[in-house]
Amino acid sequence: MGLERFCAKTPGMVTLALHARSLLCIIGLLSSVSQPVCEAFNLDVENPAVYSGPHGSYFGYAVDFYLADASVVIGAPKANTRQVDVTEGGSVFYCPWSLSQSDCHSIEFDAEGDRNALLNDTKHQVDFKSHQWFGATVRSHGDTILACAPLYSWRTEKDIPRSDATGTCYLSVHNFTKFVEYAPCRTGSFGQGYCQGGFSADFTTDGKVVLGGPGSYFWQGQVISAAKENIIKAYYPGYFMQSVDGQMQTKQVKAEHDDSYQGYSVAVGEFSGDQVEDFVAGVPKGLMLYGSVRKLNHHSHFGFHCDALRFRALGFKLGTDIGKMVDLLVGAPMFMMRGSGGRLEEMGRVYVYLQQGPLNLELSEPHLTGTQVFGRFGSTIAPLGDLNQDGFNDVAISAPFGGDDHQGLVYIFNGYSGGLREKPSQVIAGQWAAGTIPASFGFSLRGAQDLDMNGYPDLIVGAFGVDKAILYRYVILTFNTSASLTVSPGMINPEEKNCMIVNGNTNFQVEVLLDSRDHKKKGAVKRALFLDSQQPSLHKSVRVRHGERVCDHKKIYLRDEKDFKDKLSPIYVAFNYSLDPKAAADSHGLRPILNYQTTNVIEQKAQILLDCGEDNICVPDLKLAVVGDRKEVYLGDDNSLTLTFNARNEGEGGAYEAELYVVLPPEADYIGIARNNELTCSYDTENQTRYLSCELGNPMKSGTSLMEGLRFTVPRVKDTHKTIQFDLQIRSKNENNSHSEIVSYKLEVVVQAEVILQGVSRPDKVFFPPANWQVTKNYGTEQDIGPGVEHIYELVNNGPSRISHTLLTLHCPLNVQSNHLLYPVEFSTVGPINCTSDHKINSLSLKVSHTCTTAHLSGSNKSCSNVECWKLQCTVGLLERGTTAILKVRSRVWAETFIERAYKQYVLECLARYSVEKMPYAILPKHYPSGHKKVFVLTPVVWNKPDIENSVPLWIIILAVLVGLLLLALLIYILYKFGFFKRSVPYGTAMEKAQLKPQAASEA
Question: Where is it localised (predicted)?
């Protein structure tokens, strides 16, 4: 359809959208839309044709147009086919063009499985088609389609079970009526065993096939070309090696060119001025890995090559034909440049060479460089034709791993006399987020063909990671528009509450997003609403005719101050308009668009009036002082801490959204507020920094002074730093003088521990002489020596810090003047304690343990120099806070010594000492633990028998009882003889008693 026909239609619908930040009462909005202007230059990205292939087949790895039948051919190199015993042989799909997007079906280029040959009456498999990546390269020319399998392998030597990836290609000619194989590297010649023929391919205008094989000749690479008529003529089924008339190919060169990868990409163009097309081959690892491009002259049968162009890159894609002469585009998707931090970053680049004359290519600047790291900008380049009708061809360049989630991007660049515009006119993003395999949207591109026959070229984009290919058509009608916006008043007084909120109806549907540039968190409360709808958005559709102007105004109101915090930032009103998506499409299903150079978003702003003077600018002067209830924290302790701060504003104006910002060290935790008032604090983490923010006022007015305490614990103190630090600052949203100075409160990290040594004797006394003990010279058991005594010593770490190395020594008496005092039997320990003795113990063959003794004999005139002592020395390991190391020493008192010498009032006195040698910290303690550094454990020897040892023999008790009874009987007999037991009447006879009775009664 022609341009004039489309422009003759009625004017399109224009959708106007208004986006605004909150204002108080009146906002005037003025918009105008001018006449539409017809141009052809943008893709219709809203209505693409999407073709899908089998899951996991890499459908879309290669794409091309097939204009002979108005369709698209799409390679799927990992697709499964009907070939017998072939896994993932690959396929090419035929997808007819229609608005209904008909299903694609596979083209059966090769129906055979792996082939065999009969050698010496034995069948040998000669080729291997599994995983050959058939369809990795697809090109079309007229009614011919070329499809290649660069990883196809065949057995080069009959006696050696080895296969080489020579690669092979097939041609479909005469609209799929005939299929022929073309495998120019399957020759058996030395050096072509890993050719990978068909890795890249192209057609000349007259139908010559051009193949790239980057693996030939030890990866020097190779370019091969033959006319398709000669290929068809030379093909004979069943013959593996065929000679094609007129075939040209590059030869092996010096070994210094090994690993160059010539043929990684190929393109066709006329550069020599002889009106015969030449070939261009990418050599991505040539020139010491800088990369190069070689132009191959057909007259010399590829004996001539030109290394005039070189780039810092490892991969290339080539494109031609930008201007009126054939130009050259070279993609370097792995180009690296230094970023802002000085580090190399892979950005990708495209170089443009403009042909000024025969063999005269000049590099155009500036170069096109990618904007996203690892996006692989320049991976594929596709000429598009002259989209915007300015006389210069335009180009599509892909970054298949660019964009959000690396879904892939395709950039459209318009050409001009100096090469390509620096900025793209359109950027198309893939619709599919990256999964296990990135979508790779844009990995393959083909353009400059009018598939739907509407007079304008189309673009097909492959996204093999999601097994899709997308066809985009070009819009041919563009509207040029203009708009303006006025906001009144520019300053809003929150004290003027003169807006009446009513639920009225309106004929307009303007779409508004208030506070559209709010920098607060997502979901923050909008500061303003539309007056007639009490909503933050409105939408309106309007029809604008040629040259017509449309004006409108709306009122919005500021919300109550309690509903939002931000009073300082401007309130933006954003006016946005676009074409109505419901506008009528043309007969090809295309809709008009706005000129991409048109500004369709306009912003204005207003301020909220503050109590800050005539200039409406508040300048606070924020002061902060901090004191704490401690200066030290101890390793191993919970370390409670209270920080008391005094926050003041001594400036001229209020501090808006003022907060106390406290950065917590990693060792600390926030508990709460020290006092019960209205201070509100919240705890959060940002970029692994933990901080506390406490609201001080909105605004914190001038003259305000606030004092409050914050409580913390510091339980995770480590010895990696000698101090820990709290950083405190008052922050506000004011534009000027918004923060106070940072106040740091430091705490010194201290190592400190309280260590106690305590001991006890069991029993606390030893009585002599021992009960039932007899002198003997043959000691069979330890009881034969004398009474037992056990000393228990406890070394306690009360913390808070740990101790790791302590020496504990014990001295007890052993002999005095060759007389035995104590006989050590055994000792035992509990905890990390290890002891050694300077005397042999356990002479009665009891279990030997480490023991240590030395002491002096109390109650005698003998000095310690006359006493032989024994010493037990112990090493105590790591003791955590609250843990104990216990030493138990069990001995026997030599009864023979004390009975024979009749010693009285002896005190066996053992002395224990400790010394903390080390604490397990990099920080040294100010003072090593002292506490009770020594302790005496006394065991008195008492020469009197306890109650249980003074019991009376039974016969004495019986005798005493009998004597007592005898004496009692004798006493009774004597009393009897003296009449003690005779009864007497004191008052005489009974008569006498009767006579005395009344007198007794009267006396009573």
Answer: Membrane
For 944-966, letters b (16+ CB in 10 Å) and e give: eeeeeeeeeeeeeeeeeeeeeee
Q: For residue 84, which amino acid is it?
A: V
Long-range contacts made by residues 968-977, C-beta under 8 angstroms, separation at least 24? none
Exposed, middle or buried by CB within 10 Å (0-12, 13-18, 19+), for 8? exposed
Give which of 44, 5, 45, 11 is closest to 481, Cα–Cα: 11
- Work out the angle at residue 581's Cα, subtended by the Cα atoms of residues 579 and 583, and round it to the nearest 5 degrees: 85
Give dist(CA 849, CA 110) in Å, integer.
Answer: 90
Per residue in 687-712, pLDDT tens? 889 999 999 988 899 999 999 999 99
**CB 536, CB 573: distance < 8 Å:** no
CA distances from 927 to 264, 631, 758, 923 (A): 75, 17, 21, 12
Tell me the one-letter amino acid at 750: V
Asked if 937 and 889 touch (Cβ cutoff 8 Å), the reply is: no
Q: How much is the CA Rg of the chain, to the nearest whole Å?
A: 53
The string of pLDDT tens digits covering residues 447-496 is: 988 887 877 789 999 999 999 999 988 765 666 667 777 777 777 777 67
Closest to 471 in 3D by CA, of 923, 96, 906, 202: 96
- Terminal Cα distance for the chain, rounded: 160
Backbone region of residue 993 per phi and psi (left: phi > 0; alpha: psi in -120 to 50; beta: other values): alpha
Structural domains of the chain, ranges and CATH numbers in brackets: 1-39+477-609 (2.60.40.1460), 47-56+316-474 (2.130.10.130), 622-750 (2.60.40.1510), 754-774+781-948 (2.60.40.1530), 961-1004 (no CATH)
User: CA 898, CA 773: separation in Å to the nearest integer?
Assistant: 13
Q: Where are the beta strands (DSSP E) in 700-783?
A: 705-713, 723-731, 743-750, 753-762, 766-767
- Asked whether the beta carbons of 379 and 317 are under 8 A apart, the reply is yes
Sequence-distant (6+) residues with CB within 8 A of 461 are 63, 398, 410, 428, 441, 442, 444, 445, 469, 470, 471, 472
